[in-house]
Design goal:
The structure is a homodimer. Chain A has helices spanning 2-14, 27-41, 81-95, 115-132, 189-198, 215-224, 237-249, 264-273, 295-302, and strands at residues 53-57, 60-69, 75-76, 79-80, 99-110, 135-144, 152-162, 180-183, 229-232, 252-256, 286-290, 312-318, 325-328, 334-337. By secondary structure, the first copy, chain A, is an alpha+beta fold. Chain A starts with a helix and ends in a 12-residue tail after the last strand. At the A-B interface, helix 2, strand 1, strand 2, helix 3 and strand 5 of A face helix 2, strand 1, strand 2, helix 3 and strand 5 of B. Strand 2 of chain A pairs antiparallel with strand 1 of chain B, so a sheet runs across the interface.
């Protein structure tokens, strides 16, 4: 077995790009599994090498989420497509109130991708999974011809365990007038980092993706405070989450532009590119709607976490203008924040 | 709400191809969700429209599996990529011994795909899910630029409930000498149907993909008979499953070519194309290793099922030539069946 694995590694190293045969289910597929995937994703469930992972979950509710990642480019300041995929799925589970437990990974690879690039991505995925405390327990690989994919697409699907008391957080049924809206840090970093990389703008080197798993921060907060609603502000940004919330609950939302945490560099690049940071994707930001009386305590607690140190209260729930989000602008005006109509930043995640 | 949905359908119908904006998370994404995905996948879990589905599972083991489908072409005799994706994931769960319960679906769509084609695929997925008795509970859509995908790729990830008594079926730990190998019908149909379509060969109109959910057949058999091992024979075909089994358990396997169920039309096309039906992908075939004494009973029972009426005993487990699969050929010879080295039929699933 040992010699077999060694042989396999050698073969993959000789062919240092991905071939169609790596997706065949035959010898080359096995080699890729052994030399790259099992190497980094090693755990007792995955090692069984059956098509389905067998898991044991205590009696409870489960949270289940899927996302395919098609970000372009696959490497960017602050991360890569693999880091994004794992932290994105972990965060989707965490904002549902669940403790993320298991993740599946599925790769669609363009023939010719350097094995080294795949390995870097897989290594990042293993690191993020470790950081979040989740196990990657099953997977799949397909290879398509050159020009039928853009280097690498990744699907991650996650299962989390959800306690009864947290089942309503993601629906926002307890949101009420006067509740405060908190975000755990700077907005727009991920989207602008991708644009900076993609367009080779290189305007500022301090702009990095915020892709990180937020499950530890979130579980700490929901364990100690009553949270009325939470969601991660990914595609469509903060604006989309809040417009959806206002429209589904029939409350109004007021946002204060002056206190929105946006880095100067991100703000500058947004102005040049014609973007509004409110709509730019984040990959490590959670929006929480919390009771007014608890807002300051929650903010203080959030700021003790690595991914919450720049947390801020950015607005509140109101009974005025139900279904609408109103922004109080820095220059003293007011404007309605609408749903994004078309595509602002394609392939941002 | 009703008027809103109506408006949405109109917009999608006006733009009868998929635009990048359909993957933006904004208005166009919502329109696509309402007019296509929710229309067919309607159920109480999915309707919550949160990023993670909340599920309730009784205390038990879970089976968890993922596959990305990149089949080319996306429509073929006997099905399409959507039917394939749902039945493939259902079958992966079923052969693990689990009762398939929930499925996530994630689409990567090439800009310009006719909405009508997407709708046909989604409709098939809903039909297959209904047939299998599984719920599609969460999903994701990404759109990439023309030339960055080949029409449509689909990931399906499934969760099944696995009773303790069935947890070992997929590992084959109870396989022993003399056990019989059963398959539920004709082999090679799926792979050859795809090739026939892709290469516009049109040699025979009776060749159709066998993609179907096998969970009802499988649960009926495992409920009534002791099954020592089972797996679906997909990419790499029957040969790959058996070579892997022999090599992992250290038994030998003998196959009898004369009794292998292969349609004359499939056999003919395999000869022309230079394929061996043993390696051609199936999407509705399960291989079971069963005690010799039960083999005939199991065969009889299998034949009462729609997807088992052409079931056959094709070989047996032996203590000779451990780790090797030996084929007794029709002309009276013997040959070793090896693992497929490279890619025989790319993008078959």
């Amino acid at each position: 077995m040992k010699a077999h694995v060694q042989l396999i590694i050698n073969i993959v190293m000789h062919n240092n790009t991905i071939l169609l045969g790596h997706g065949s289910g035959g010898t080359l597929s096995h080699e890729l599994l052994e030399s790259i995937f099992f190497k980094y994703f090693k755990n007792s469930v995955l090692e069984k090498q059956t098509d389905s992972a067998v898991l044991h979950v205590s009696p409870s509710h489960l949270s289940f989420t899927t996302d395919s990642y098609v970000v372009n480019p696959i490497f960017f300041n602050g991360g890569n497509i693999g880091k994004l995929a794992v932290s994105g799925t972990v965060n989707d589970l965490a904002v549902s109130g669940a403790k993320p437990l298991y993740i599946s990974v599925s790769f669609i690879i363009e023939e010719g991708l350097p094995v080294q690039e795949l390995e870097t991505v897989v290594q990042s995925m293993a690191e993020e999974a470790e950081k979040a405390g989740v196990l990657i327990v099953t997977g799949d690989t397909k290879v398509v011809e050159r020009g039928k994919c853009d280097k690498l697409y990744i699907n991650t699907t996650g299962i989390g365990q959800l306690e009864e008391r947290f089942t309503n957080i993601s629906y926002g049924t307890r949101v009420s007038k006067g509740d405060r809206i908190i975000i755990n840090g700077y907005i727009g970093d991920h989207g602008i980092a991708i644009m900076n990389e993609r367009e080779s703008l290189h305007f500022s080197s301090d702009i990095a993706s915020d892709a990180e798993p937020l499950n530890h921060l979130i579980s700490d907060i929901i364990e100690h405070y009553p949270i009325h609603f939470m969601r991660d502000a990914t595609r469509g940004g903060v604006a989309t989450v809040l417009v959806e919330l206002a429209s589904s609950l029939g409350f109004g939302i007021e946002l204060d532009e002056q206190v929105l945490p946006v880095r100067e560099s991100v703000k500058g690049l947004c102005e040049i590119l014609g973007f509004d940071p409110l709509y730019v994707a984040n990959e490590g930001k959670v929006i929480m709607v919390v009771p007014e009386a608890e807002a300051q305590h929650i903010l203080n607690r959030m700021r003790t976490h690595e991914y919450g140190k720049d947390a801020a209260v950015i607005g509140e729930i109101t009974s005025d203008h139900p279904g609408k989000v109103l922004l109080h602008t820095e220059i003293g005006g007011k404007r309605i924040v609408d749903m994004l109509a078309g595509e602002q930043l394609p392939r941002i995640c």
